[in-house]
């Protein structure tokens, strides 16, 4: 397809249709120390990434009186709120209700918290969205952290392999009515074949040119990730934010993905 002008908050960027499609599937992980750095990155890279992920900075921003969801939305569109709720069902219900606000596209909870907790997360999202007159954010379940592997699970006494636990928790997430899962990018393709493309696969563990976020053990490249899975959102942090030229690197990733869309 031909190249055409695409207008953003921050100006103009010429992207092909396939590159636009790739952009929508990139979620920039704003895993930085300060709210100011996060907002600067969101603005700087808005041409190349379709959404942003924030975690503990959400609470930091609230304490500083900054509506970080609104500020990111102004710069970059939607937000993946990565707070990984894992508590009693009623507490998770209240958390979910509170974060179902304009600008939050989806948030997550630990599948390990059990059926009642996960269902309460969905209920809270519905309640919060209804109160605010918005579309309900999607609720996705964390399967197994990408910082773990078989040895870590063995040390915890779980008696199950990493891949088997990811699959089992994906099965439970779908049964319990969650909208999708968080799983390692290299696992998403196989899971999509089994559990369907109407399910959402949010995939950290992305590396590029040998760069990735520290502490990750389950790694994959973005071009392979989109070849494998048709309904994945690629959470990319250090592969972009640690690059010498962040914008150039983000565009390289975008181009690599576009070839397979």
Commentary on this structure:
- With 261 residues, this protein is an alpha/beta fold.
- It has a single domain, classed as Aldolase class I (TIM Barrel, Alpha-Beta Barrel), CATH 3.20.20.
- It has 12 helices and 10 strands.
- The protein has helices at residues 17-24, 35-44, 57-63, 68-76, 89-99, 115-132, 150-155, 162-175, 185-195, 222-228, 238-241, 246-258; strands spanning 3-8, 11-16, 26-29, 51-54, 78-85, 104-110, 138-142, 180-182, 200-203, 232-236.
- The strands form 2 sheets. An 8-stranded parallel barrel has the order 3-4-5-6-7-8-9-10, surrounded by 7 helices. Strands 1-2 form a two-stranded antiparallel ribbon.
- Strand 9, helix 10 (222-228) and strand 10 (232-236) form a beta-alpha-beta unit.
- Helix 2 (35-44) runs parallel beside helix 4, helix 9 runs parallel beside helix 10 (222-228) and helix 10 runs parallel beside helix 12.
- It is globular.
- The protein starts with a strand and ends with a helix.
Q: What's the SSE blueprint?
A:
Layout: E1 3-8, E2 11-16, H1 17-24, E3 26-29, H2 35-44, E4 51-54, H3 57-63, H4 68-76, E5 78-85, H5 89-99, E6 104-110, H6 115-132, E7 138-142, H7 150-155, H8 162-175, E8 180-182, H9 185-195, E9 200-203, H10 222-228, E10 232-236, H11 238-241, H12 246-258
Parallel strand pairs: 3-4, 3-10, 4-5, 5-6, 6-7, 7-8, 8-9, 9-10
Antiparallel strand pairs: 1-2
Attribute tags:
261 residues; alpha/beta; TIM Barrel; two-stranded antiparallel sheet; 20% strand; globular; disordered N terminus
């Amino acid at each position: 397809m031909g190249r055409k002008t695409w207008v953003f908050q921050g100006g103009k960027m010429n992207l092909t249709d396939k590159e636009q499609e790739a952009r929508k599937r990139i979620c920039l992980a704003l895993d930085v120390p300060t709210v100011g750095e996060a907002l600067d990155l969101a603005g700087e890279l808005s041409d190349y990434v379709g959404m942003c992920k924030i975690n503990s900075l959400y609470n930091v921003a609230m304490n500083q009186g900054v509506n970080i969801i609104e500020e990111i939305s102004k710069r970059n569109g939607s937000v993946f709120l990565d707070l990984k709720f894992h508590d009693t069902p009623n507490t998770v219900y209240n958390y979910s209700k509170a974060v179902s606000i304009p600008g939050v596209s989806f948030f997550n909870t630990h599948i390990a918290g059990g059926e009642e907790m996960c269902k309460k997360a969905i209920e809270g999202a519905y309640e919060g969205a209804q109160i605010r007159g918005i579309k309900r954010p999607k609720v996705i379940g964390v399967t197994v952290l990408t910082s773990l592997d078989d040895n870590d699970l063995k040390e915890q006494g779980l008696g199950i392999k990493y891949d088997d636990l990811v699959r089992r928790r994906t099965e439970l997430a779908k049964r319990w009515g969650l909208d999708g899962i968080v799983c390692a990018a290299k696992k998403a393709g196989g899971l999509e074949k089994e559990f369907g493309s109407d399910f959402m696969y949010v995939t950290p563990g992305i590396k590029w040119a040998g760069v990735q976020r520290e502490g990750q053990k389950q790694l994959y490249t973005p071009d392979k990730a989109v070849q494998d899975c048709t309904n994945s959102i690629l959470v990319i942090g250090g592969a972009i934010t640690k690059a010498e030229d962040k914008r150039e690197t983000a565009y390289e990733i975008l181009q690599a993905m576009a070839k397979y869309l």
